[in-house]
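User: Could you check the structure of this?
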Amino acid sequence: MNVEEKWKANQAKVAFMKSFPGLILAWDKLAGKTVELTAPLPSRVGGVVLVFDDGSFVVAPPLSPEPWELTEALAAARPALEPAHRDAYAEYDRLARIDKEALRSARLEKILGAIQNNLEQIPELKDRLKDLVRQWK
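Assistant: Sure, the predicted structure tokens are below.
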């Protein structure tokens, strides 16, 4: 077998694997399925194949979501999850409020610090700030 034949043989194998009966390639197709088996992927730490009771399966990446993904996931799944995890959502909401206030406070301090650090270098800054405050009254 020459190199080209080997390449074609590999391509045929890959094409077959990607259309293997039961392979699920879209998360929305998992709704209502029951996991029968989880088997780790030896070459990928945290990777797993999930086999469902109807013979379908999915290859899943390691479960280590980024904080922004968890934020979106908790919001998207809230209607389904909150009834079972009311206390956890209450604590999450409390921590989110604290984080939001800390961000607001940090921004305020940064702005005030920038003003103070630039007053000497930009003499007209003080007058411009006074004018700005007058506009808000």
